[in-house]
Specification:
The protein has 16 helices and 7 strands. It is α/β, with parallel strands linked by helices. The strands form 2 sheets. A 5-stranded parallel sheet has the order 2-3-4-1-5, covered by helices on one side. Strands 6-7 form a two-stranded parallel sheet. The chain starts with a helix and ends with a helix.
Length: about 325
């Protein structure tokens, strides 16, 4: 059975992670110093490594050579955590196990020692969906857990975690992964998979992922299925519904000439091609935002998810307009979207 790229190349150690250095360094030091907390809250946007780090931490704690920041990866504990079959690493999907009865069952489970490993690790995904009553049932256990229990709660909406729970856990906020890091990761994966990809194609995929590793790798999988072993920028743009800088530049050209007719022609082209106008407005808002940032920065900047040639193009186009004009058009496009 085919294993999707996002799962096939899922990091198994801290060294394989991209981004989230602040989380990785803190956890590695905590393990080295034997200062392992009983509760962690990992929060941030989707696809940035929260559940992955939770599993890596479980491997580090229960490896036969551990607790160690560099698990061996070959012992039964490491292998079972990777395959989600470890008897002492319990993964709970809070989206479907969010009630008080499930939390009472978990609380009873915590009382018993691990069947084989050093720690009993509870990884609770989508933790913000747990009800307030269920959180209250878990409160005392989180405050005074047995020495062998470690709770790791992963959530995309940390503000929904009750403060009584959050105050009893260490909290880590995950950041969006940098554009260049995503491109570098996909270049390495394409090399291993025997795929040739234009730089523009990988840039488009990274832009569509918007800082999410999983979203970017899912888009890469989709692009390979569509285009085969050679990915081109134009083909990937068509597949993902992204617009090239050339097509978006037609709008700024019409604005520079104050040509209403040219603008109407752009709309007519989009409609005749069956494009989604709302999606085009969304891309246009992103384009105006990038033009504004490029004009203000005046050089390559990490604030724009684009390659160096694209950033140069943005600076050249943005130079023809004032910051006030770009700001006004950005606001208009946001209002339309």
């Amino acid at each position: 059975m085919y294993l999707v790229i996002a799962r096939k190349y899922r990091p198994q150690t801290f060294a394989e992670l991209i981004g989230q250095e602040h989380v990785r360094t803190t956890l590695e030091n905590a393990i080295t110093q034997q200062r392992i907390a009983h509760g962690y809250i990992l929060s941030g946007q989707r696809g940035t490594g929260k559940t992955t780090i939770a599993r890596i931490l479980a491997r580090c704690l229960n490896c036969v050579e551990g607790p160690t920041p560099t698990p061996c990866g070959v012992c039964s504990s490491c292998l079972e955590v990777s395959s989600s079959s470890s008897p002492d690493v319990i993964e709970i999907d809070a989206a479907s196990n969010r009630g008080i009865n499930e939390m009472r069952e978990l609380r009873e489970n915590v009382r018993y020692r691990p069947s084989r490993d050093r720690f009993k690790v509870f990884i609770i995904d989508e933790a913000h969906q747990i009800t307030n009553e269920a959180f209250n049932a878990l409160l005392k256990t989180l405050e005074e857990p047995p020495e062998w229990a470690v709770f790791i709660m992963c959530t995309t909406e940390s503000h929904k975690i009750p403060t009584t729970i959050a105050s009893r856990c260490q909290q880590f906020s995950f950041r969006s992964v940098e554009f260049q890091d995503l491109v570098g990761l996909m270049e390495g994966i394409c090399g291993k998979e025997g795929i040739t990809a234009e730089a523009e194609a990988l840039a488009v995929i990274a832009q569509s992922g918007e800082g999410s590793v999983r979203d970017s790798l899912s888009a890469l999988d989709q692009a390979i299925a569509c285009c085969g072993n050679h990915l081109t920028g134009s083909a990937v743009r068509d597949l993902l519904g992204m617009y090239s800088l050339a097509s978006l530049s037609k709008v700024t050209a019409a604005l520079e000439q104050s040509s209403t007719a040219a603008m109407l022609e752009i709309v007519a082209e989009l409609e005749s091609a069956g494009k989604n106008l709302q999606h085009f407005c969304r891309e246009l808002a992103r384009y105006f935002r990038n033009l504004l940032v490029a004009k203000i920065a005046g050089q390559d900047t990490r604030l724009i998810a684009a390659s160096a040639p694209e950033q140069l193009h943005l600076r050249e186009v943005g130079g023809a307009f004032s910051e006030e004009d770009l700001t006004r058009w950005l606001q208009i496009s946001l209002d339309i979207y």
